[in-house]
Write a structure and sequence with these properties.
This protein has about 450 residues and is an alpha+beta fold. It has helices spanning about 1-30, 35-75, 90-125, 145-150, 160, 165-180, 215-250, 255-285, 300-315, 335-350, 400-405, 410-420; strands at about 130, 140, 180-185, 195-200, 205-215, 295-300, 320-325, 330-335, 360-365, 370-375, 425-430, 435-440, 445, 450. Helices cover about 55% and strands about 20% of the residues. The chain binds adenosine-5'-diphosphate.
Length: about 450
C-alpha cells in the first residue's frame, strides 16, 4: 500500500516535471537559447525531481498510516489511535479522524454500560418481560420470562411456541395491528397462577409485554369478596324476618311512642337490607362470576326501556325523563345488566337532582362505541369529588346520601357492570348546573348477516 501511494505520488510529480522539461526543450529549439541557461535548467529539473521524490515518500508514509487507521476502524477496533503528523492539511485530517475515533469509543463504551445496566435490571425483576418483533418472533426476554415460558426460549422463535396463553397472543396481535396499549389478565401461562399483563407498542413496530404474578392478590381479593358475599347472605334472612315482624307489629293498635320506635326499627332494617342486597350485587359483578348474556341490542331499545321503567317514579317526583339523542345502532350488551346501570344512574338523578325539572337520557356513537348518558340539571358535583365517585362507599355528602336511602355502592356497581362489558364509565359536572354520567359500550358488528362479538375488555 505504502509503495503504491509513494509510486503514484512520485509519478504525478515526475509527470509534471517531465512535461515542463519537454515544453522547455521545444521553446529552446524554437528560439535560440544560451547553452549555459539550458544546462542550468537541466540541473534545476534534476533537483526538482529529487525534491519530488523525497516529498512523495513523506506523503505516502502519512497516507499509509491514515489508511491503516481506517482499516482498523472498519474492523470495529475503536481503540486504535493516529499519532501526531506535524503540520499541513494531512496532519489536520489525521487529528480530526483521531478525535472522531476517540468520541466513537467513548460513546460505544457508555452505550455498552447502559445496556448492561438495563439487562441486569430487567433480569433482577420478578416481572417477566418479553419483546416481540413485528413478525411475532421473540426478540428479547429476561430471566423471569425464561423460567415462565412453555418451551426453552431463544431469540427469533415464534411467540406462539414460547407462550401458549390465548389471551396474551390476542393482546399482542392487537398491539401489533393497532399500536395501542393492551391490558389483560392471563390464566393459562402457568397452571393455577394468575398474571396481569401490559403490552405496549415499540417504535420498531414490535411490542413489549410485562407479566406480573397476581396470584396472591387475586386469592386475597377472592377471599375478601367471598367473605362479604357470605356475610351479606347470612344477614339476608334475619333482616327479612325482622322487617316482616316489625311491619306486622305496626298493623296492631299501639301508642305513638311505640309506633315511633317501630318506625325507626323498620327504617334501619330496610337500610340494612338494601345494603346487603347491594353488597351481594357488587360481589357478583366484581367477581365476574355472573356470566353476561351479551347479544346485539338496539341502543334505542335500551333507552326506551329505561324511560318506560322510571317515568312513573320520576313523574311522582315532578320530573320528566326525556330521550334527547338515540342513534340507529346496536351495542353488544346484556340487556338486564344495562337496565341495572340505568336504574342506578336515574335513581341517583332522582335522589340528588330533585330540583331539576327533567332528566335527559340518550346516546351517541363514538369511535366504535356507543356512549350512553344520563344528564340531570340539579346541584351538580364539585370537581374534587369526580375522580373518586365510582369507588365503593364514596359519598359527597354522607348524611344526605343516608337520608336519601343511599348505600354508597350504586356507582361502584355501575362501574363494574360496564367494565365487564369491556366499556368505560365517567362523569362530568358543572357545579350548580347538573351532572352528566356516561358509559360506553362496544358496537355490535354485523358480519355475513350474523351479529358478531366485538371488543375486548380494556380496564
Ligand atoms: P349512593 O347510594 O350514596 O347514592 P352512589 O354510589 O350511587 O351511592 O353515589 C355516590 C355519591 O355520588 C352519592 O352519595 C352522591 O353524593 C353523588 N351523586 C351520585 N349521583 C349524583 C347526581 N346525579 N347528582 C349529584 N350527586 C350525585
Amino acid at each position: 500500500m505504502k509503495q503504491r501511494i509513494f509510486l503514484k505520488t512520485f509519478l504525478l510529480i515526475f509527470l509534471v516535471a517531465g512535461i515542463s522539461a519537454v515544453t522547455f526543450y521545444f521553446i529552446a529549439r524554437r528560439y535560440t537559447v544560451n547553452s549555459a541557461l539550458l544546462a542550468a535548467c537541466g540541473i534545476s529539473l534534476l533537483l526538482a525531481s529529487l525534491a519530488a521524490l523525497i516529498s512523495a515518500a513523506g506523503i505516502a508514509k502519512r497516507l499509509a498510516k491514515i489508511d491503516g487507521f481506517a482499516d482498523e476502524l472498519a474492523a470495529a477496533n475503536l481503540t486504535v489511535r493516529l499519532p501526531e503528523m506535524g503540520g499541513g492539511e494531512l496532519a489536520a485530517l489525521a487529528a480530526t479522524l483521531d478525535g472522531a475515533a476517540r468520541r466513537l469509543e467513548s460513546d460505544f463504551r457508555s452505550l455498552g454500560s447502559s445496556r448492561t445496566q438495563l439487562e441486569t435490571l430487567l433480569n433482577s425483576m420478578d416481572d417477566a418481560v418479553v419483546a416481540v418483533s413485528a413478525k411475532r418472533e421473540v426478540s428479547w426476554f429476561n430471566g423471569a420470562m425464561k423460567r415462565l415460558a412453555a418451551a426453552p426460549l431463544t431469540v427469533g422463535m415464534p411467540l406462539i411456541r414460547a407462550v401458549r396463553d390465548p389471551e396474551l397472543l390476542r393482546a399482542v396481535a392487537d398491539v401489533l395491528d393497532h399500536r395501542n396499549v393492551q391490558i389483560a389478565t392471563l390464566y393459562s401461562v402457568s397452571p393455577g397462577r394468575t398474571f396481569g399483563m401490559t403490552s405496549t407498542p415499540l417504535p420498531d413496530g414490535g411490542a413489549v409485554c410485562v407479566l406480573r404474578d397476581n396470584t396472591e392478590i387475586a386469592r386475597v381479593e377472592r377471599t375478601r369478596r367471598d367473605f362479604i358475599a357470605n356475610v351479606s347472605h347470612e344477614l339476608r334472612t334475619p333482616l327479612t324476618s325482622l322487617l316482616g315482624y316489625t311491619e306486622t307489629l305496626m298493623d296492631e293498635p299501639m301508642d305513638s311512642k311505640a309506633r315511633e320506635f317501630l318506625e325507626i326499627i323498620r327504617r334501619n332494617a330496610q337500610r340494612m337490607s338494601r345494603l346487603t342486597e347491594d353488597l351481594l350485587t357488587l360481589a357478583r359483578v366484581e367477581s365476574g362470576e355472573d356470566r353476561l348474556q351479551q347479544a346485539a341490542v338496539s341502543a334505542h331499545e335500551l333507552l326506551r326501556d329505561a324511560q318506560t321503567s322510571f317515568s312513573e317514579v320520576a313523574k311522582a317526583r315532578g320530573l320528566a325523563i326525556e330521550i334527547v339523542q338515540s342513534p340507529d345502532t346496536q351495542v353488544f350488551a346484556d340487556k338486564d345488566a344495562i337496565h341495572q346501570v340505568f336504574a342506578n344512574l336515574i335513581d341517583n338523578a332522582l335522589k340528588y337532582a330533585a330540583s331539576s325539572k327533567k332528566i335527559e337520557i340518550g346516546a351517541t356513537t363514538r369511535m366504535g362505541n356507543v356512549e350512553f348518558f344520563v344528564h340531570d340539571f340539579g346541584p351538580g358535583i364539585s370537581s374534587e369529588h369526580l375522580p373518586r365517585l365510582f369507588e365503593r362507599f364514596y359519598r359527597v355528602d354522607k348524611a344526605r346520601s343516608r337520608e336519601a336511602g343511599g348505600t354508597g355502592l350504586g356507582l361502584a356497581i355501575v362501574k363494574h357492570i360496564v367494565l365487564n362489558h369491556g366499556g368505560q364509565v365517567g362523569v362530568t359536572s358543572d357545579l350548580g348546573h347538573g351532572a352528566m354520567f356516561w358509559f360506553r359500550l362496544p358496537l355490535a358488528q354485523v358480519q355475513h348477516g350474523n351479529t358478531a362479538v366485538t371488543g375486548a375488555k380494556s380496564h
